Amino acid sequence: MNGKNVTVIGLQWGDEGKGKVVDALAGRSAYVARYCGGANAGHTVTVDGERFAVHLIPCGILHDGVMNVVGNGVAFDPATALDEIQALQARGVAISPENLAISLQAHVVMPWHKLQDQLSEQSLGNDKIGTTARGIGPCYSDKANRSSAIRVAELLNPTTLRMKARLVGAIKNKTFAALYNASPMNIDEIIDTYVDLAETLRPYARNTGELLRGAERDGKRILFEGGQGCMLDIDHGTYPFVTSSVVSACGVPAGAGVSPKAVGHVVGIMKAYTTRVGAGPFPTELKNDIGDAIRDAGNEYGTTTGRPRRCGWLDTAVVRYTADLSGVDELALMLLDVLSDLDELKICTAYQVDGKEVREADPTMLAKAECIYETLPGWKQDITGCRTFEELPAAARDYVNRVGELIGRPVGIVSVGPGREATIGHNSAIEGLI
Ligand code: IMP
């Protein structure tokens, strides 16, 4: 294993099943840290048949003795965080400053960011990005803009918050009225609500970079929990149809406040097929019965927005690219069981672009990429009960092996169902941890 820490990232367009792997590893980690994204993420974890969907709070919250960190790189929505904390507490999950820390340097998603996200998307019509409307892009825009941003540290100082929110809120009202003919927000009401929210969340706020660097010095395991997927990375994804943070493993040091050496063993999570929500290029998309069958079998509807996901064949040109980008040590192939009813399976091995064969996805040319496929036989039987690699039918084993071969990385984990138990270790370096 490459170091003691583990970084779990998505290698496609999100929703790869990171939550299940993070959940399995969380119990063996001292810290679970989020470093990117915000409440646009949605991790679903099934524990003892009970389904938990978390958006902003790290998945480690479902385990005793784990410190969960919302890092500085996260777009932190205090209203959603509090809702989530209270909903988890109502279901018996213990949450206190002993197991949850929120970075003082994280940027706050304010109500105007969510409104701006919606207004901007509406105004774009057919050219819209198809965001989750959680205010993520506008929050990160203000972060880069600096003068209009509010961080958790400022949220916690009522005088600063009032002053800043009045100033920024007035500018947003004027801008939204001019650009979108929008009615003004009641800024004083927003300020009162956020002063109250800040008081409730105050005990959780701290210097999380210092906390994590201390964990590093003490030799404690940190699990970095990625959000979204590398093809949605602001720098390396299918721009502009991306999210607004660095979600690949490249984002870990900056978004958590640790050194690049802390990234550790990188587990790349991928589905046995491909899905995408929102707009943007998707070379292997299936707009036909097979795509519909995959959506039905995989229940491919967004955890955050409920939108039907676009479905398609596995694209190894994409995963080859994202696995290299993030320095992936091993792959976790999720949702293999979803393909069990199909007669045959196609895998995209490369593209034809302008008459040339291209083996590694380049986001700038994806819209004109034509897929080169290889066809493998399906296994046509229920595999949800398989618990070892050898128990999988030969055709399923061949599929897994071929995926690893095409991507050039070992497939260490195969998932055949939503529950923790439906996970097959296949010479994984983290097998002892899951
Ligand atoms: P935003 O992050 O809400 O701005 O959305 C930008 C793009 O990223 C849209 O296509 C969203 O559907 C997509 N996206 C954001 N978060 C997730 C996620 O957790 N899973 C899958 N897609 C996501």
Strand content: 15-25%
Category from helices, strands and their pairing: alpha/beta
Number of helices: 12
The molecules bound to the chains, other than polymers, are: inosinic acid
Radius of gyration: 22 Å
Overall mean pLDDT: 95
Give the overall shape, derived from the CA principal axes: globular
CATH superfamily annotation of the largest domain: Adenylosuccinate Synthetase, subunit A, domain 3
Helix-residue proportion: 25-40%
Count of discrete domains: 3
Can you tell me the residue ranges where pLDDT is under 50 for at least 5 consecutive residues? none
What gap, in angstroms, lies between the N and C termini?
14 Å
Q: What is the secondary structure topology, with strand pairs?
A:
Elements (H helix, E strand, L loop, with lengths): L5 E5 L7 H9 L4 E4 L8 E5 L2 E5 L12 E4 L4 E2 L1 H13 L9 E4 L3 E2 L2 H14 L11 H10 L6 H4 L2 H23 L6 H15 L3 E2 L1 H10 L4 E4 L26 H5 L8 E7 L2 E3 L12 H10 L11 E3 L1 E2 H10 L4 E5 L9 E10 L2 E3 L11 E8 L16 H14 L3 E5 L7 E3 L9
Parallel strand pairs: 1-10, 1-11, 2-5, 2-10, 5-7, 6-8, 7-9, 11-15, 14-16, 15-19
Antiparallel strand pairs: 3-4, 12-13, 16-17, 16-18, 19-20
Helix pairs in contact: 3-4, 3-6, 6-7
The structure holds inosinic acid.
The site of inosinic acid has 21 residues, from helix 4.
